[in-house]
Amino acid sequence: MRHEIASVHCAATPLAFRRAAATDIPALLLIEAVSFPTDRMTARNFRYAVTQAKGACMVAVQDGRVVGYGQIAVHARTPNGRLSSFAVHPDNRRSGVARALLRALEDEAAALGCGAVRLEVRRDNTAALALYLRSGYVQFGQYPDYYEDGMTALRLEKRLQKQPKGARTSCFDIG
Ligand SMILES: CC(C)(COP(=O)(O)OP(=O)(O)OC[C@H]1O[C@@H](n2cnc3c(N)ncnc32)[C@H](O)[C@@H]1OP(=O)(O)O)[C@@H](O)C(=O)NCCC(=O)NCCS
Question: Cβ(7) to ligand 1 under 6 A?
Answer without folding.
Answer: no
